[in-house]
């Protein structure tokens, strides 16, 4: 029989499992973000002994390595004053005639569908250091965004 038709095991044909990618740059977090990281680690640590399938255990171990790395590199940012758009702020603004509100948070806290953007997102970066009433450029357009209000995020 030709070697081309032989198969030693199903394992050699499985897709490789890679580590969960860690976003580049500093791991800035809010105080609430740090609480969430610790809670996720505790959840995974308590779940791990209950998992019986190897694939599930390996997946949980991989996730646990990610969250432990994020905890080890977390840099809790001081609460902003609300005078300027900064990390940890809620910003109300007008873009293309529409009023919107976003929260600027760390990568692991970001949920774009819930208007929680990472501080590295283009929209968040465009508004950084702006003040209420200021117009900022965005997406190649001058004065595309008007900052309406800025407030520090409340602890959840």
UniProtKB/TrEMBL annotation:
Gene3D superfamilies: Transcription elongation factor, GreA/GreB, C-terminal domain (3.10.50.30). Residues 34-61 form a coiled coil. One of its GO terms (biological process) is regulation of DNA-templated transcription elongation. The keyword Protein biosynthesis applies. Transmembrane segments: none annotated. Residues 83-151 form the Transcription elongation factor GreA/GreB C-terminal domain. Keywords: Coiled coil, Elongation factor, Protein biosynthesis. One of its GO terms (molecular function) is RNA polymerase binding. It comes from the Bacteria. PANTHER family: TRANSCRIPTION ELONGATION FACTOR GREA (PTHR30437), TRANSCRIPTION ELONGATION FACTOR GREB (PTHR30437:SF6). This is Transcription elongation factor, GreA/GreB family.
